[in-house]
Design brief:
Length: 270
């Protein structure tokens, strides 16, 4: 064997054969993990693809994961990822019945769909890109059901807007919520100050629309990104009023890794 001959010639005691990288294919099967490792997926079809003013939107079909939402070449959610929604909701520990809730992002509709099953008083979903809503309504119905078909329901509203602009309006109105869900960008893994300034801006606006006993339920980052998690915790420690940070993790099938979810509330005054 060639492998044996090379081993003898180079005095090598071990070897390993790696599959070739698939280059120039019509369908790109590679997506990076949270810590920028290369992951290969069994993607066999581009179900939907469109570039908007905000991002590149794709619905890709995986043999093992079903349809997957991919934004700017980053995996967001697949039909196998019900655990993502269950974990960010902290089921079954939270009681959403008769609560007022706002979702920042969440255009795939999975979170809105599951929250409505809990009979809340009202859920408002703030999504900046209507094309995400349209694509997921058609191609991710196993996650969102028919929830995205109409923008207004008996106890929910879908508003196509920049969530930061909407939060500013709620702050002016004095509107407060029992739960705010952060389903936006991950916590930065870099030290880029601009990214962390944006993260802090989102947090500060969010805290201003939370009721005194309200909670921020948010996805954070990959569990392997320990430095990013520590930086996030340090950022939270600087907030006024003081907040309490609890977290859990779950393995998300389409991410192929454990993911951290955070639950943030105001510290109780003694």
């Amino acid at each position: 064997m060639i492998e044996t001959q090379i081993g003898i010639t180079t005095n090598s005691t071990r070897s390993k054969h790696f599959p070739p990288i698939k280059r120039g294919a019509i369908i790109d099967v590679y997506i990076t993990s949270s810590d920028e490792r290369l992951l290969e997926y069994d993607i066999d079809e581009i179900v939907f693809e469109k570039k908007t003013q905000f991002q590149k939107i794709q619905i890709l079909h995986s043999k093992s994961l079903g349809n997957m939402l991919v934004l700017d070449d980053l995996q967001n959610i697949s039909e196998r990822d019900v655990i993502y929604t269950d974990t960010i909701m902290n089921k079954p520990k939270e009681d959403y019945k008769d609560k007022e809730i706002v979702i920042l992002g969440g255009g795939d509709g999975a979170l809105l769909h599951e929250l409505l099953k809990e009979k809340p008083k009202e859920v408002i979903m703030l999504e900046i890109d209507e094309v995400v809503i349209q694509a997921c309504s058609k191609h991710l119905r196993s996650l969102c059901g028919d929830t995205l078909d109409e923008k207004v329901g008996p106890n929910y509203k879908i508003i196509v807007t920049d969530c930061l602009v909407a939060l500013d309006e709620y702050i002016k109105e004095g509107r407060k919520f029992d739960y705010v869900f952060g389903d936006l960008t991950d916590v930065p893994i870099s030290q880029d100050p601009e990214l962390w300034v944006f993260m802090e801006k989102v947090l500060q606006k969010t805290f201003k629309v939370m009721k005194p006993d309200g909670k921020l339920m948010t996805q954070v980052c990959g569990a392997i990104c320990t430095d990013a998690l520590k930086n996030y915790e340090n950022l939270l420690k600087k907030q006024v009023p003081k907040v309490k940070f609890e977290n859990t993790k779950a393995f998300i099938p389409s991410f192929m890794e454990d993911w951290i979810f955070g639950f943030i509330s105001f510290e109780k005054k003694e």
